[in-house]
Amino acid sequence: MEVEIVAGLTGLAGLAIGLATGLAVRVSERAQQAATPAGPKTGLPPGIASVLSVLRSSAVVVDGEDRVLRASSAARAFGVVSGDRLVVDELLAMARLVRRDGEIRETEIQVGPSRSRSRADGRWFAVRVAPLGSHGLVLVLAEDLTEMRRVEAIRRDFVANVSHELKTPVGALSLLAETVEGAADDPDAVRRFAGRMQQESVRLTNLVQDLMTLSRIQGDEPLPELHPVSLDEVIVEALDRSHIKASSKNIELTSGGRDDLKVRGDEELLVTAVRNLVDNAVAYSPENTRVVVATRACDDDRHVEINVTDQGIGIPDSEVERIFERFYRVDPARSRATGGTGLGLAIVKHVTTKHGGEVTVWSKEGSGSTFTIRLPLLNPSRHDAGRPSAAAEPEPAAPSRAESPTDFPTPPNP
C-alpha cells in the first residue's frame, strides 16, 4: 500500500515538473520572439559602439524615429545634439533623406554655439551622413573645420596685406625714379626726390625685415640655443637703435628700475621687441615729451616686467584688443606717415610668447600708454631694488613734470 502511494506521488511530481518545464520553454520562446524585432530599434548592432568610441570625428547615431541613440561628448559640446534629438535642422533633414533612399551624403555646415549668438560666432563642420544597417539607423559624422578655416582666413588676409604694403613703397620708388630721370637738369629736385627714394627704400627694407622676423617666430617650434640675457644690455641697445627717431622729435628716452636682471632667451629678438615698443611710443607721442623704459621684479622675484611708458595720444578702449594683430593700425593714415609696417606689435607678442611670457597694455586717450613685457627671471634671487640707471637723469629739453621715470602714471597690474 505504501509503495503504491509513493509511486503515485512520484508520478504526480514528474507530471508537475514536466508541465512547469514546458510552460517555461513556451514563455521563453515568446519572450525571444517579442524581443527579436525590437532589438535594432532600441540599441546599436553589436560592435558599433566600440567602433564609434575610437573615431576622432563627432559621432551621432539616430534611429528610425529621429531619436539619438548614441552621441559623442564633442557632438553635445558643439551644440549638435541636445537630449535625445538632433538640434541642427540641416543634419536632421540629411538624416531623413539618407534613411529614405540609403545614399551617403556629405556637406559643410556652420553651427552656432547658442540661440542667443549668431552663426558667425559658431563652428564649421565637414559632415558625412550614412545608413547604418537595415533597421532605419543613420550615422552622422562631423569633423571640426573651424581651426583650419581660421588659419586659411589668416593666410588670405596676410597675403593681401603684404601685397598691399609692398605695392606702396615699390610703386613710390618707381614713380620717384621716373621723376628723377625727368628732372636731371635740376640738381635741387634730384636731391629732393633722391631723399624720398631713400625713405621709401628704408620703409621697404623694414617691411621685409619684419616679415622675416615674424615668419621665424610665429610657428610652434621652440627657439633654438637660448642663452642668459642681461636686460640692462637689451634696453641700452634698444634705446640706442631708437635714438635717431626720438631726436628728430626732441623726445627724451630714459631708463630706470632694477639692475642686473637676467632672462633666458634670444638677445636679438628681445632687443627687437623692446625697440618696437619704443619706436611705437615715439611715433605716437608729440614733440618734447618723454618715453621711459623701466624694469622691475615681481611675484617674489620669479618674473620681471619691462614697462615702456609714453605721453602720447593713447589708444581707444575699443581698439586695445586688436592692436597686436598683424597689419592692424588704430590710425592707418598716421602709421603710414610715420613709416610703420603694422607688424611691430605682432612681433612683440610672438617674441614674448616664445620666451614664456606675455605682453599687456594700459592706455588712456590723451594721457599716454604703458606696454608691459612680462618674462620669467633666470635664477631668481631676492635682493633690494637696484639703483636707477644713469640715463634716468633728466635733460634740459625734457619736460619738468617728471623728475624720474617712476613719476609716470602707474598702470594697474594685469
Overview of this protein structure:
The structure is a single chain. The chain has helices spanning 2-42, 48-53, 73-77, 89-101, 146-182, 187-217, 231-241, 243-248, 267-283, 332-337, 344-354, and strands spanning 58-62, 68-71, 81-82, 85-86, 105-111, 123-132, 137-144, 227-230, 252-257, 262-265, 290-298, 303-309, 358-364, 368-376. By secondary structure, the protein is an alpha+beta fold. Helix 6 packs parallel to helix 11 and helix 9 runs antiparallel to helix 11. It is elongated.
Question: What's the arrangement of secondary structure elements?
Answer:
Elements: H1 2-42, H2 48-53, E1 58-62, E2 68-71, H3 73-77, E3 81-82, E4 85-86, H4 89-101, E5 105-111, E6 123-132, E7 137-144, H5 146-182, H6 187-217, E8 227-230, H7 231-241, H8 243-248, E9 252-257, E10 262-265, H9 267-283, E11 290-298, E12 303-309, H10 332-337, H11 344-354, E13 358-364, E14 368-376
Helix pairs in contact: 5-6, 6-11, 7-9, 9-11
